[in-house]
Amino acid sequence: MIPDMFHFRVIKESKDTRARTGFFQTLNGGVETPVFMPVGTLATVKSLSPEELLNIGVQIILGNTYHLYLQPGCEIIGLFSGLHRFMHWNGPILTDSGGFQVFSLSRLSKISEEGVRFQSHVDGSRHMLTPEKAVEIQICLDSDVMMCLDNCIAYPAGRREAEDALELTARWAKRCKKTWEEHSPRKNALFGIVQGGMFKDLRKRAADSMAELGFSGYALGGLSVGEPKDIMLETVDCALPHLPDSKPKYIMGVGTPEDLVELVALGADMFDCVLPTRNARNGQLFTGSGTINICNARFKNDTEPIEPECECYTCRNYSRAYLRHLFMTRELLVYRLNTIHNLHFYMDLMQRIRTAIRRGEFSTFRKDFYRKLECN
Q1: I need a surface site. Which of 77, 107, 149, 169 has the fewest CB within 10 A?
Q2: How far apart, in Å, are the Cα atoms of 330 and each of 167, 204, 327?
Q3: Residue 212: exposed, middle, or buried by beta-carbon count in 10 A (0-12, 13-18, 19+)?
């Protein structure tokens, strides 16, 4: 068996919540947790350079196995010995296995015990993604954290469907781990994914069985797929305690700033979501008092930055009036400037969360966070 070179340690725990701060080491650098990972599906966080990401405070980014397998393909990425050199990013990278993309493009795919047979949304070509192949592609990508292939289901789903997805994900996880142990030359990490729909007993069962398999870390998948917020939080609350505290706990595809604060309180360590980057391109900007839509007419003559207290490049140099002008005229610069601000907001939020936990002040931070939102 290949020894796991991925190391995680808990540094500080909250006394009155399950919030914790920690650190994990990868072959391409260390990451402080709780951490938010910007989504770079196709080997780029849209509109930003790696240097801009570093300046914002990004520690780790996410790529996607499904999309990178189709474009540009392993043959080209292999010429650069992996994603890091290909995209000029020297920090850690996590790659999703493609399970969620299979779910979101379900009309083009068919799931069986063997894996997922799908038709490319790019050119219509047909492919087979097995658990083994998902890991092999990620080995080619040379990501620091790889994910097992999972069977993600929609909400609402019946108990039988959720149980079937849970069991198939567990069987696939065993095959992923075997391939990782036999073929991963650089000893990068592999995370298992917990499914089970919104059924608490199934989530607990899935978490227990996944923990028994022994992975570098664990993720909760199949969330933020249309379920109400309270159900999502209840599902996380019941599942996370069944995962080993000695390993990082990752909530996939979530979420809003409020989601991050609440999920950290429940004991989550890692997050990813397209929200800050996608919303930036749609003109929605995050502030400590809530979101603003820059296309709103009230910003036409506004000489203030997005958020006066913000220290990001955009807020230090540009006004709301200018950003609105760029957005209304569809100038490309606005996508970059808006994205810089939104990602800076998320990075700053996570930094303040980590600091509050280390100081034993997370509950106070949480109350102040909501108080500022309510005052808006």
Answers
A1: 107
A2: 47, 47, 5
A3: exposed
Residue environment code for 124-144, b if the CB has 16+ CB neighbours within 10 A, otherwise e: eeeeebbbbbbbbbbbbbbbb
Is 214 within 8 Å of 245 (Cβ atoms)? Answer: no
- What CATH number labels 7-272? 3.20.20.105
How confident is the model over 250-298, as pLDDT tens digits? Answer: 999 999 999 999 999 999 999 999 999 999 999 999 999 999 999 999 9
Distance separating alpha carbons of residues 132 and 154, to the nearest angstrom: 24
In one letter, which amino acid is 361? Answer: E
Q: What is the pLDDT of residues 144-193, one digit of tens each?
A: 999 999 999 989 999 999 999 999 999 999 999 999 999 988 779 999 99
Per-residue confidence band for 39, with pLDDT thresholds at 50, 70 and 90:
very high
What is the average per-residue pLDDT within 123-136? 94
* Structure-token match 């019941």, residue found: 238
The secondary structure of residue 295, as a DSSP letter, is T
Residues annotated as catalytic are: 96, 272
Taking each helix axis from N to C end, the angle separating 159-183 and 131-141, rounded to the nearest 10 degrees, works out to 50
181 neighbors 212 (Cβ within 8 angstroms): no
Instruction: List % helix, strand, coil for the chain (3-state, nearest 5).
Output: 45, 20, 35
Q: Which residue type does 73 have?
A: G
Q: List, in sequence order, every residue forming a beta bridge with 217; answer none if it has no partner.
A: 191
| Residue ranges, CATH 3.20.20.105, the chain | 7-272
Per-residue pLDDT at 98: 83
